[in-house]
Design brief:
Helix content is 63%, strand content 0%. It contains six helices and no strands.
């Protein structure tokens, strides 16, 4: 079973995915900017309304590479306490 922290990390990572990560995972086609725009507009909705592509998005979430080594861990407590 997934923990709350793992679920939160997956949601934050979904928010951070870039187009190339989705292409590499097979969630969208290369240069499919219309789908990318729809995904970006509401990532959670797109994920829920495209169940055939959900496993590929899930793969992209777990393959996600932070842009810098300093971003390896999202500090959930710091995010929660931001005002």
């Amino acid at each position: 079973m997934m923990t709350l922290q793992q679920f939160e990390m997956a949601l934050w990572t979904l928010k951070l995915l870039d187009m190339q990560e989705l292409v590499d995972a097979g969630a969208i086609d290369d240069r499919d900017y219309e789908t990318w725009d729809t995904f970006q507009a509401d990532r959670m909705r797109w994920f829920l309304l495209n169940p055939a592509k959900a496993p590929a998005v899930w793969t992209a979430i777990w393959r996600h590479k932070p842009k810098s080594q300093d971003e390896n861990v999202i500090d959930l407590e710091r995010r929660r306490n931001r005002s």
